[in-house]
Amino acid sequence: MAKSPSKNGGKKHEEEEVVQSAPVSTALAETGNTPIVATGLADAGQVATFLEELDDASEGRGVSRSAEDVIIPATMVLQGLSPQVDPGDPAYIPGATQGSIWIRNHAIIPGNEGILFQFCAFYKDWFEWIPRSGGGGKGGGFVAVHPKVIEVVDGQGAVVGLKTPNGTIAKEAPDPRDPTGRKMFWQMPGGNELKETRHHIGFVLRGGGFVPTVLNLTSTGHTDSKNMMFALSNKFLPSGKPLDSWAMVYRLTTFQRTNKAGKWYALSMKEGTVEDLVPGTFYVDAGGHVILPGGEVARKPDGSSIVVRRPAGLYADPLAFQRGKQLYEAVMGGMRQIDVGDTGVDEGSAPAEPSSTRAYEAGDPGHAGEQIPF
């Protein structure tokens, strides 16, 4: 094991070693007392050799894969009150509009275009939020995550509360955002809101690459989640065995929902089509023909078409399949933590409140260092 540089003079010694071990083709310059190694120009042969040897040389050093150091970013649907769509708000993102899909720290995608999503893992828990009326907007709303709750029942068997692992009991209270007083929510003793949250974790395939992300769905967003799970659970091989969720790729777009509270955008899941082919995928048509990115039909060495017995749809190729499996194992093994930003597709996104009182659509990043248990 290499020794760490000492604090008393070790840095200078380390720099001298770097200079001494630099290739002959580089030049050394001086700026004050700091030696600088000028970058040499590698020729085509050196680059080719380097790339060939990289698989053996690379071991993932310098990268932490600990849950405390890796956060999967959230994907959110922007609403009319989301600060990202308001040009006058500091959080405004150029190009963001109502119904857009925002992959935090990555991209804004038009909702009608949507994203190609590979579902890899799923679980449920309960998020505790400061209510909007209590100053929960602008990223300050997340309080804690509760892995599970226990129903508290009265003598007649009616559920009268939800008990969290720390013993706190949430009780039903009228939702102040509902003028009719009919809608209820689970309220903690201090006034915070307890919301069951369904998490879909996977990869967005975009621009020839892949981005890990999480959809955090609450309230009426549970309907979107259950529709997604219904589609995923109805994929079977000819043998009758169910497909792993990461075997196929789907397109998620947004659409507008309306109720008495107002209008908001929700997520819709569609089967991937041959037009959705991108690197990392292939398509199986109704006749079992395999179509590769670029439209080429996969063929056997004798030139005949490859025909398979599989459900028609867009599939993850072998490398993408293995990547999806690895993400599933990492999530279920507790080796990843998530950005807790609410995807924002529930009816709570509808009421016309000032953006400064919003609790979720700013994409609450949660408490720094908060580890989400799986």
Describe the structure.
The protein is of the alpha+beta class and 374 residues long. 14% of the residues lie in helices and 30% in strands. It has helices spanning 10-21, 44-57, 221-233, 318-332, and strands at 28-31, 34-37, 71-72, 75-77, 101-103, 107-109, 115-129, 142-146, 150-153, 159-163, 169-174, 184-187, 193-206, 209-218, 250-259, 262-271, 281-284, 290-291, 313-316, 337-338. The strands form five sheets. Strands 7, 8, 9, 10, 11, 12, 13, 14, 15 and 16 form a ten-stranded antiparallel beta sheet that branches. Strands 4-5-6 form a three-stranded antiparallel beta sheet, with no helix packed on it. The radius of gyration is 26 Å and the shape is globular. It starts with 9 loop residues before the first helix and ends in a 36-residue tail after the last strand. Mean pLDDT is 79; it is low at 1-31 and 349-374.
Layout of helices and strands:
Layout: H1 10-21, E1 28-31, E2 34-37, H2 44-57, E3 71-72, E4 75-77, E5 101-103, E6 107-109, E7 115-129, E8 142-146, E9 150-153, E10 159-163, E11 169-174, E12 184-187, E13 193-206, E14 209-218, H3 221-233, E15 250-259, E16 262-271, E17 281-284, E18 290-291, E19 313-316, H4 318-332, E20 337-338
Parallel strand pairs: 3-20
Antiparallel strand pairs: 1-2, 4-5, 5-6, 7-8, 7-13, 7-15, 9-10, 10-11, 11-12, 12-13, 13-14, 15-16, 17-18, 17-19
Shape: globular
**N-to-C span:** 33 Å
Tally of DSSP helical segments:
4
Largest sheet: 10 strands, antiparallel
Gyration radius (Cα, Å) is 26 Å
Q: Which stretches are low in confidence, meaning pLDDT under 50 for 5 or more residues running?
A: 1-31, 349-374
Q: Structural class, from helix and strand content? A: alpha+beta
